[in-house]
User: Fold these one by one.
Assistant:
Number 1:
Amino acid sequence: MSNTEYSFTKIFWKKLRRNKGAVFGLSIIVLALLTAVFAYILAPDATPDANRIIVEIAAKKPGYKQQFIKIEREQQNNSSVSDLFFGAEDRYQYIPISSNKQTGNRYDVEKFVDDGVTEPLTFTFPGQQKENPIVTKTFWLGTDKFGRDILSRLIVGVRVSLGVGLIAVAISLTVGIFLGAVAGYFRGWIDEAILWLINVVWSIPTLLLVFAITLALGKGFWQVFIAVGLTLWVNVARLVRGQVLSIRELNYIEATKAMGFSHGRTIFKHILPNIMGPVIVIAASNFASAIVIEAGLSFLGVGVQAPQPSWGLMIKENYNFIITNNPMLAIAPGLAIMLLVLAFNLLGNGLRDVLDVRS
């Protein structure tokens, strides 16, 4: 049995590696997963939700450099391991400056207020300084209208996209497989009732249904995940129902009935394992759909709420800059959504070919 499983796994990966599109998609997904896990280690702004607001440098273009003087805050929290994965409040206040002059522990600076506008300030640091309070930061993708680093929010925002996809797919598979298997196996009035429910849900536009569920559950992080998941089960249920209808008439299923096996054992041990190929393919498709739906909801204001970074919310906050002098503020999250959705679609197509799933 183990040799058979090993051979199947070996053949599966060998076929998948031949599909360049699937390999590219899988590479992007793995990179996104690693980025999501180590987001606050990779992000230049490691505050929770990458929400360091510096209004003086709002809406700056990619590659913008700015000098700051760091002022230590009075209240400091001891750092912990969890800060590496969930972010930590800033130990310092970052004040943008145009120039500085040091005299011992005294710094005379010109605070940057706006282009061509400065304000003279003086700071005195008691005792021996452990580190230079003057730092220069580069904002590789620019800053948004609140002066937050776009790159950092883009990195942290990948957690939302992958999280909504994972939870939505889990919910859609659980509901869809159960209802589809029950409808296809028992048929009769059970099949008719479930099929009627499928057709009703299928007839409602996806975004409209998500709006209704979101308004019922309320706005928020987890509510969006659940709402998206409850709209994607229909595809799974229709697919599973059709597969079960074709398999339940095969001889080995008839044999399980003759041997007195329970319906549950027949469905979960003898039918579902033989239809998982098509289910895996549609799961990849649903993952991509969930990312797009979440982005659309956040753009419309009923998805993830500020200050939590969501790629759709980032587009909403900065879309007006597309027709002004800084379109990258909205283009960058749009490209991120497109790349991640493309990766899941390419992987789904590759899995379809490897598992020999007929559309």
Note: Residues 51-148 form one domain.
Number 2:
Amino acid sequence: MRSGFNQGIRDGMPFVVIMVPFGVLFGVLATEAGLDLAQTMAFSSLVIAGASQLTALQLMEQGAPTAIVILSALAVNLRMVMYSASMVPHVGKAGPGTRGLISYLLVDQTYALSVETYERRSDWDVAEKVRYFLGTALPVFPCWVGSTLAGAVLGTRIPDAWSLDFAVPLAFLALVGPMLKTRAHVAAAFVSAAGAMALAWIPWNLGLIVAAMAAMAVGAELERRAE
């Protein structure tokens, strides 16, 4: 009965290698931005989304209006809506409390692992799929919060030579790379990357939102034509 849970733990463990420097980096940057320990930990525990947290933090440091900070963070996290929609066929029949827990722990890593495994294990029922998901979250969530705490406590004492910022692009490359299975996926990834670089001059990182919308439109159109 625990096979799915144990497999989830095993599959989630490799992400610790990426999550630790990622979380430490956010803790350090949050401290440098003026957030105290309680604010930093609440940020990581409630949002649980490194990309949107770093985006919001950067905009706060730039003195961007609160509405822009919130809009940008929400735009970066819009992918969670799509994640949730694709999880419904697998765990949508679970109880309300279980679905609430899954939505709280739904991040890039737990989603990518779960969806790929669900497609291969069509023999699993809803309960086994839920156990697998919770297994993937067990190493990911405590690792994220714990590493954020370490970064916030250590702060500027971490040498710049460690270059912890390498973890940010590496984390998403490790997730996105294996998922580029169709022409639409590849086109969307290319447009988003090219658009983000071409529109980097737009203030408050609003170019990311424009690039993301363009990428989704291109991917959707290619899928429509393929169908």
Note: The chain has twelve helices and no strands.
Number 3:
Amino acid sequence: MIGKVIGALVGKEIGDRHGEGGKGALLGAVAAGAMKRLGPIGLVLGGAWVAKKALDRRKERSS
């Protein structure tokens, strides 16, 4: 369950970067599969990447 949520967030970040919703959804599904294969380390890495992107976005808004 957590892996799917993190995969969706990763897909959203990728889609925002490229401006295409379908591409982000596809890459998010691939990322979720890769994270499952890596086990807990993949979930931590995916979650950390999404958290970093969220913090960067928050810093941009506050400056």
Note: The helical segments are 2-18, 21-38, 40-62.
